[in-house]
Amino acid sequence: MTDDTLIHDPNGGLPRLLEIMRRLRDPETGCPWDIEQDFDSIAPYTIEESYEVADAIARKDWPELEGELGDLLLQTVYHTQMGSEAGLFSFDSVVKSVADKMVARHPHVFGDESRDKSADQQTADWEKIKAAERAGKKQGRTLDGVAAGLPALTRAVKLQKRAARVGFDWPDTSQVIDKIKEEAAELVEARDTLTQTEVEEEYGDLLFVVANLGRHLGVDPEAALRGTNAKFTRRFEAIEDALSAKGKSPSESDLAEMDALWDAAKLSELKPN
């Protein structure tokens, strides 16, 4: 008979979670859905949980963040259980790997190097260490190791940062803005004269340069767009609320009315409390 003592121990900590996942994946007694999963099928959930963590942080919902961090930890436990079953790695080997990496990348904390350096210098040193690690993995090209699965805007910035390290970069924002104007004009031309595939390519070029402008301005494009998405949601919901007070829905309104309500919502946000 299986001993469930650890499973039901509320103070069992990480060993309890590892055992729960092991049991869920047990081919004889586990959960049919969990048994069927593999790295590819679980990866989308891992990405989703990461975004839910970021969302809780953005909303400063700390109780929810606690739960979302637990969900994200579960993703690591899930992948390491599958890795263990396949003989690839284990939870302990993953922990050892990241701990070794943190020690190696922080010689100014765990080694003999001086901590008396600027944040910029520490960042430069960090990148040198990472470059050496990539060289050890035979990733010799400048853009090697930038994960293809990253959100597109985030990956664009990382690619641009890598290229900038070897001098492939505009020296100031004015040139980036000029390039944005050029790409916008090309997109308009493509819309009128080219195929949908070519329009998509020109649109991608414009987004890439806009991401580059964010990098030059010290703005994270993903964070900026998340903020704008939240603002749009907030103001559109204000439109819905105002229409509802009139006994109407957005579909029963028109653009002019909703635009005026949008301006009112915007003005309301700008007023001091």
From TrEMBL:
Belongs to the nucleoside triphosphate pyrophosphohydrolase family. It catalyses: ATP + H2O = AMP + diphosphate + H(+). SUPFAM superfamilies: all-alpha NTP pyrophosphatases (SSF101386). PANTHER family: NUCLEOSIDE TRIPHOSPHATE PYROPHOSPHOHYDROLASE. Residues 37-110 form the NTP pyrophosphohydrolase MazG-like domain. Its EC number is 3.6.1.8. GO terms for biological process: dATP catabolic process; dGTP catabolic process; dTTP catabolic process; dUTP catabolic process; response to stress; TTP catabolic process; UTP catabolic process. This is Nucleoside triphosphate pyrophosphohydrolase. It is an enzyme of class 3 (hydrolase). InterPro entries: MazG-like_dom, NTP-PPase_MazG-like_C, NTP-PPase_MazG-like_N, NTP_PyrPHydrolase_MazG, PRib-ATP_PPHydrolase-like. CDD domains: NTP-PPase_MazG_Cterm, NTP-PPase_MazG_Nterm. It comes from the Bacteria. One of its GO terms (molecular function) is ATP diphosphatase activity. NCBIfam families: mazG (TIGR00444), PRK09562.1 (NF007113).
